[in-house]
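Example 3.2
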Amino acid sequence: MMAYIVRRLLYAIPILIGVNLLTFVLFFVVNSPDDMARMHLGVKRVTDAAIQQWKHERGYDKPLVWNEQAEGAGHLTDTIFFDKSLRLFAFDFGQSDSGRNIGHDISQRMWPSLAIAVPVMLVGLLVNISFSLLLAFFRGTYLDFWGVVLCVAMMSISGLFYIIGGQVLLGKLLNLFPISGYDTGPHAWKFLVLPVVIGVVSAIGAGSRWYRTLFLEEINKDFVRSARAKGLSEQRVLFVHVLRNALIPILTGVVVILPSLFMGSLLLESFFGVPGLGSYTIDAINRQDFAIVRAMVFLGAVLYILGLLLTDISYTIADPRVRLE
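Structure, written as tokens:
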């Protein structure tokens, strides 16, 4: 077991290094610090002095990867690559282009993102799996047919429709929940219910249809026919045999959701005014704050790789044959 985990960790290291190098090339080679200065200053005829001043204030005036003027280890450490890229491996995100501490902002904004993403993931899994099991139980009937039609219709509608429609119906017309805002006190749940409901409802179509396909594939296998031949009820076959053997593809789908637990939902947080990491990223893009965008790209890669590692470990729990292979 430990050798399996170590092997998976070793696989993750070159991936993370590659993401870091690609991010550095995109932000500092393809898009040079001079280009960032011109975009941030927002002036067509900006002077060279203003560009140099902007770069100096943010540490972008150093050489990219090799400093000829430095001595000793400074040839490598006194560079943009060391300050802006290598420090990310120690989760030292530095200062944003506006002067704020990125690490502090992330530690403050991750909690609102978790407050929305965790309920959306847990409730969404429960609703999607339950609904898809219901469709699989009544497979071939009118309930199954119209359930699939409903799923296709729901997954064909844009997520913006659910957000705006939920705000208008539940927030404005029925006045059940606030349309936007956030509170850290005991009344915080009022601001979280609406985005959580919309996040769950908007994912029912695609999630339930995918889980239904998994369950129908398992239902047609030999072990299910053997369970029925032994006299087991259809409910026990579905919830014990079919659901358990479909855990591996279900866990694979969950890994896509894991990074959003910390990164947050860009649309939900932006439209509902939740101060999470999703809205933090959107605001940084609008302000052309490249330091924040670069840090969030790296953090997203780390979380995704961590999700893959946790998924591989969960495979060994759900199916020991994976570890043996």
